[in-house]
Each structure stands twice: as C-alpha cells, then as structure tokens.
C-alpha cells in the first residue's frame, strides 16, 4: 500500500488522482467522527465532503513531519465543530444506517445500544465528546489524541477521564443492567 | 494507594496503557479495595457499552462525489501585464459569471424539490388521491369503489387493461379528473396520512410520461394548497428513497411554470427541510441531467449551503455547457434580482479551479455582455467579500485574449461609473 506521504507528494506535483486512495483510506474514519459529532448521516456526509475538499485545497500546508491521519482528523473535528456550532441540532441518528457485516439481530441490538450511547454523547460538552469519540470509536492512543487536538497528553487524559465520569452518570441506568 | 492514583491506573488499564508491573499492582489493589473494584467494574461496563456502538459505512457514492469535486485537472497558469490593472473589476465580472452558474445550480435544487411536488409527488399519492377522492366523493355523495383504490400490481388483478407501466389508463384519466374537482381539505388530510411505501411502489411501477401529462393538467392552486399542508419528514423520506433516473426523466418533461408556482407557494421551512432531506449524490445526479432553462427559472428560492455543496460536486463539463447555452439577458436579470448576501455567500464557498475551468470554456462576448449590464455597486459589494487569493488564482487562470476583452469592458464600466459620480 502506498504511503500517505508519497500520495501527498504526488498530489502536490499535480497528480490529483493520487488523492483518491487517501479519500478511500480515511473517508470512513472522517465520516464516523462527523457522524458522532453531528448525529445525522446526511450532515456527516456533508461534513466528510467538506473535510476532503479542504484537505485537498490546503494540502500544500500539510507538514510532513506529522502524520496525515492526525491532520485529517483535526480538519474533521474542526469541520464538525463548525457544523455543530452552526446548526445546534441534536437529532437522533436515523435508522437507515448500515453497519458493516452484522446480522439483523445484531443491528437491532446495536441500534438500541447505539441510540442510548448517542443520546448520552450528545449531552456531553463538545470537548468531552471529542475525546470520547477519538479514544473509543477511533481507537486513538493518548499520544495520538494529543497530536490531533494539539494538547499535552496530561490534558488529554484528564479530559478523557472526566468525560467518562460524565458519560457514566448520564448512562447510569443502562450501565446498571 | 490514593484515590486519584488508582482511578488513573484503572482508566489506563482499560485503555491498555499500563505496563505489566502497573497492571499487576492495580489488580492486587483491586482485590483488597471494594470501592476501587466497584469503580473498575463501572468503567469496564462503560467501555463495553461504548465498544458496542458500530462504525458506520459512509454513503456509497461519497468518494465518487468527493473525487468529482476535487479532481479537476491542473492547468497552466497564465500571467498578464494588465493583470493588476483589471483585477478588481475583472473579478467582479467573473464573480457575476460564476454566480450565474451557481444560481443555475440553485435552480436545480429548487427544481428537484418542485419535481416532487408538481410531478412525482402527486403520483405517488395517486393511490392516496383515489383514497382521498373516495373520501371527497363520499362527502359529495359520489362513492368510489374499492376497485378504484388500486396500488401497483393490484391493478392487474382488478383490471386487465393496464398499460406497460402497470397503471390503468382509465384510472389515470379518472384520477386526473377527480383531482381537478376534489375537495382540497380532504385531499390534504389524506395526503398527510399516506403510506410512503405504497407511494413508492406506485411510483416505481408507473409510466413517467403519463404521470407528467396528468401533472400538467392539474390545477395549480389546488396542488399548492395541498402541498402547503404536506408533512415535511415524509417528503424528505421519499426523496431519499426515490430513483434518480426517473426523477430526472420526469423533471425534463414537467411543466416549469407550474413547478415554479408551486414551489413559491411553499413555506420556507418546508422547502428547506425538503431540500435538506435529499441526498447530495441524488441532487448532483439530477443536476447533471437537468434542463438549463428550467434550472435558471427556479434558482432564486434555493438554499445557499446546499447550492454551494452541489456546485462543488457538479461536473465541470456540464457547468460549462450550461454557461454556454444560457440566455444572457435572462442571466443578467437573475443576477440583478438575486440577493447580494446569497451571492456573496456562494462565492465564498466556491471552488477556484472549477470556476476557472468554466471561465476558460466560456464565450468572451457573453462574459463581457454580462459584465457590462451588471450593477456596479453589486459587483463591488461581492468583490469586497471575496478572499484575495481566490480572486488572484481565478484571474491568473484566464487567457490573455479573454483578459484583454474583459479589460476593455471594465474600462467602459469604470468610465460610466465615473460619469455617474
């Protein structure tokens, strides 16, 4: 698999097609971050589109000493925050979502669980929600979250632990089961 | 171990960040401290709950749309001695040209919604219309039998004279007649309660041309009255499940005047919600197959953000084709009547490369004509809101010949503006 950096260099030298593998590689990640932030599939698709357009336009500002995925995450989060700020809407996820490779029973079960968690997530502050999304849904390490959010690891941990406490209180009924 | 210390170890343990020795220390501590153990279990359950939330797949066509948006080819950038002389006014002009195209896209979006209202939506609700009409006729002491209430394949069992599309011509004609004479309130009531799946079934099996023909004969005021009371969510749901090619076919055959009247009569909130409920790829597909004049006629009512996004995903060749074939006088008229804020907002979100590509393929005379007839104040207002680098990139991508032509037009405008002052 071609490395991100090589693809970026090809893009910068005029090969726009080289951007396609980057989109393919990261669109699901970006979409899911946007989805958890915006809580709406159409909005998440819009945000994802905007993220890659911005990434394409600003590619020359990308610093190769950092990882591309940190950079694209940062754009995704900023775009999502802008969207949330602009819309201030917390609609429930639609039921038409398609999860990958699961049986209908699993989807139903997951759907109920997801709904519960999403309700809880939307009650968190944006800062708290972001660290939960990056750690639990995107499986980023403390260091990686720190890179994406440009925060010291100590702050990441403090924010994450505090966010979990808040979420635990919100989801207390579900957690008692 | 202190309270905060073990809590951090627990968090780190569940995150897989503890070293083996830290992990061993923690578990030894947990076996001796009930409070710590309870905290550990609570956090473990939270982790488990969070991990049960599935990752979702993005829409199938999203990558295609993204790549379509950004994959315009690199172009050789030309520079000109008159670049700085003409920069400001040229960009006002270019913005205008560009804006016109944006507005056209706005028309597509608006038209897309209107198609639903004017053509497609009545026909999915055709079944409801029968039901409705049944109600209305009952109210008027003219009962409609169950045989009239036919949906999709049911028609085949009730009447052997169905057409190829699966809709009984007699039933269609009758429905059109009934529609023209029915009681609006009853129609509206039933419209709101219609079953989406049923509408979708009929829609998928029906004959497009016939539907369009009947839609053209319908009474606008009545349609408008009904659609004003329609349920937005339902419209949006249907929009999401509709077949693009069919919509496009119907769009091309629909009556523009009727569509425009209907759309204008709708509540803004409803228009916005409806447009929002439509997926981009669907709108973009429609855009690519739509009729230019129709789009232009409808542009004024569209949603900016959506227009901007659609524009970014539109096919450049199509944009260029539209530009070349549009009527100048009409474009100018639309430009003048457009809201300045909307123009400015759209401009700010535009993709430079695409705009530049479009401009290169445009007819110089048309560009100049548009520029000469535009309102100077409006051009300047738009210019003020545009970022400099966007203006510069745009300008640099033009040919010398085009720049020279435009420069002459700018000079004329400048002279006229000076005379007025």
Question: What features would you describe in this structure?
Answer:
The complex is a heterodimer of chains A (177) and B (421). Chain A has 177 residues and is mainly α. Chain A has nine helices and no strands. The termini of chain A are far apart. Chain B is an all-alpha fold and 421 residues long. In chain B, 74% of the residues lie in helices and 0% in strands. Chain B is built from 27 helices and no strands. In chain B, helix 5 packs across helix 21, helix 22 packs parallel to helix 25 and helix 24 packs parallel to helix 27. Chain B is elongated. The termini of chain B are far apart. About 23% of the residues of chain B have low confidence. Chains A and B meet through helix 2, helix 3, helix 5, helix 6 and helix 8 of A and helix 1, helix 3, helix 4 and helix 19 of B.
Report the portion of residues of chain B in β strands: under 5%
Largest sheet properties of chain A: none
The percent of residues in helical segments of chain B reads: over 70%
For the secondary structure, the number of strands of chain A is 0
Order of helices and strands of chain A: HHHHHHHHH
Shape type of chain B: elongated
- Alpha-beta classification of chain A: mainly alpha
Oligomer status = heterodimer
Describe the global form of chain A: globular
User: Poorly predicted ranges of chain B (pLDDT <50, ≥5 residues)?
Assistant: 72-167
Rounded Rg of chain A: 17 Å
- Percent range of helical residues of chain A: over 70%
Order of helices and strands of chain B: HHHHHHHHHHHHHHHHHHHHHHHHHHH
How far apart the termini of chain A lie comes to: 44 Å
Entry keywords:
heterodimer, A: 177 residues, mainly alpha, 9 helices, globular, B: 421 residues, 27 helices
Put the structure in a nutshell:
The complex is a heterodimer of chains A (177) and B (421). By secondary structure, chain A is an all-alpha fold.
Secondary structure elements and their pairing?
The complex is a heterodimer of chains A (177) and B (421).
Chain A: H1 4-12, H2 19-38, H3 41-57, H4 68-87, H5 104-122, H6 126-137, H7 142-149, H8 153-170, H9 172-176
Chain B: H1 3-14, H2 20-30, H3 34-51, H4 62-70, H5 83-120, H6 126-139, H7 154-158, H8 169-181, H9 184-192, H10 196-205, H11 208-217, H12 220-228, H13 232-241, H14 244-253, H15 256-265, H16 268-276, H17 280-289, H18 292-298, H19 304-313, H20 316-325, H21 328-337, H22 340-348, H23 352-361, H24 364-373, H25 376-385, H26 388-396, H27 400-420
Helix pairs in contact in B: 1-2, 1-3, 5-15, 5-18, 5-19, 5-21, 5-24, 5-25, 5-26, 5-27, 6-9, 8-11, 9-12, 11-14, 12-15, 13-16, 14-17, 17-19, 19-22, 20-23, 21-24, 22-25, 23-26, 24-27
